[in-house]
Design goal:
The protein is an alpha/beta fold. It is built from 14 helices and 16 strands. The strands form 3 sheets. Strands 1, 2, 5, 6, 7, 8, 9, 10, 11, 13, 15 and 16 form a 12-stranded mixed beta sheet that branches. Helix 11 packs across helix 12. It is globular, with a radius of gyration of 20 Å.
Length: 406
């Protein structure tokens, strides 16, 4: 595996910031929050979320196809189509046996589950849809993508909570390095904004309760942060070995130069207070990339806007990286996309490396004095030869990508 580079040749996004890479990136760069009151959550303890705007599954996928897909799959297929087009790949002409799909997801299809549970309670078991399980199973994320694009190689869904999307990209990279595939469609998707799921997050104290000003609710690294705002969507990347991408004349947007993963082994929901687990993943990603703690120009932080997470991550970054990198959390704009967050943020990190642009951390109006890292409050243009994208998840899951210039 020595000397083999993995290229990112295609990107696709469906996010609260927009449908498509262009609209999403423009909104993230503007620092405009997408949080708003959500009528679906009207009776919930917390009634704000970050929804994908104007997503018409019937128009984008066809009414018959969309009817059989939970939103978490719908988002992924739309993003995947964009990523493949961006990569210049035609599924009609490729060798499907050499194409893998590795996607991340936290909770499958809760929209379908909750809807069918209401049917069960109101009308009885005989009225429950036979599509319940095929629509809600997490593995259908990759399964439906394989069906859509004729990808008959390795087909996986990984679930590491809010690190799922990042873990998926790391596993996809490994498949290329091991020569199991020539192309891997990777990333993550989540559609978890349902009354039951959001009630659970609210009851455990994870969500911001800043309902008097929803747009200001997600405020990573700010002294007044009080929890995250839930988001939804998908981020998809097309990965190939660099030599293969260049041989076919593809545009190489960046390289996935390293990957690290670890477990806190500390607590079921809280991160290690000193960030020991995520530090281990950061150091492994740098070792894998052949880089050191003084080489990182930018970090797209996990930065959820929760009191414990932001402080632990910032403390770790200050201790671990000697380059004083410019840090941002795009969750100030998009909210927390949970199992899709790492994939979406990997796309944003690729764009930062490619364009030399670090987007702002929205709502950073009163920086936490305990946080000593350099957090971008405004869009900043700076050369980014190497960046990190960090993800942490419940259960102490940690995953980090090292993204390098093409």
């Amino acid at each position: 595996m020595a000397g083999i580079d993995v290229a990112v040749t295609g990107l696709g996004l469906v996010t609260p910031a927009g449908i498509g890479v262009g609209p999403s990136w423009e909104t993230v760069r503007s620092g405009r929050s997408t949080a708003a009151f959500d009528p679906v959550l009207e009776s919930n303890p917390v009634r704000i979320s970050c929804r994908v705007p104007g997503f018409d599954a019937d128009a984008l996928l066809g009414a018959r196809r969309a009817l059989r897909l939970d939103p978490f799959v719908q988002f992924a297929l739309v993003a995947a189509r964009e990523a493949l087009a961006d990569a210049g790949l035609d599924p009609q002409t490729w060798d499907g046996a050499r194409v893998g799909v590795v996607l991340g997801n936290g909770d499958g299809g809760p929209t379908t589950v909750e809807a069918q549970h209401r049917v069960l309670l109101s009308s009885g078991a005989a009225k429950v849809s036979p599509l319940l399980l095929p629509m809600q199973l997490p593995n259908m994320l990759a399964g439906q993508a394989a069906i859509e694009f004729g990808a008959t190689g390795p087909n996986l869904v990984v679930s590491t909570a809010c690190a799922s999307g990042t873990t998926a990209v790391g596993v996809a990279r490994d498949l290329l390095l091991l020569d199991r595939c020539d192309v891997v469609l990777t990333g993550g998707s989540e559609a978890l904004i349902t009354p039951l799921a959001m009630a659970g997050f609210a009851q455990m104290g994870a969500l911001s309760r800043r309902e008097d000003d929803p747009a200001a609710a997600s405020r990573p690294f700010d002294a007044d942060r009080d929890g995250f705002v839930a988001g939804e969507g998908a981020g998809i990347l097309v990965l190939e070995r660099l030599a293969d991408a260049r041989a076919r004349g593809a545009r190489v947007r960046a390289r996935v130069a390293g990957y690290g993963a670890s477990a806190d082994a500390h607590h079921m929901t809280s991160p290690h207070p000193a960030g020991a687990g995520i530090e281990s993943a950061v150091r492994e990603a740098l070792r894998d990339a052949g880089a050191g703690p003084g080489d990182v120009a930018h970090v797209n932080a996990h930065g959820t806007s929760t009191p414990l997470n932001d402080l632990a991550e910032a403390t770790m970054l200050k201790r671990t990286l000697t380059s004083d990198p410019l840090v941002t959390s795009t969750k100030g704009v998009t909210g927390h996309l949970l199992g899709a967050a790492g994939a979406v943020e990997a796309v944003f990190t690729v764009l930062s490396v490619e364009q030399g642009i670090v987007p702002p951390t929205a709502n950073l109006t009163r920086p936490d004095p305990r946080i000593e890292i350099k957090v971008a409050a405004t869009e900043t243009r700076v050369p980014v030869d190497l960046a990190l994208s960090n993800s942490l998840g419940f259960g102490g899951q940690n995953a980090v990508l090292a993204v390098a210039a093409a």
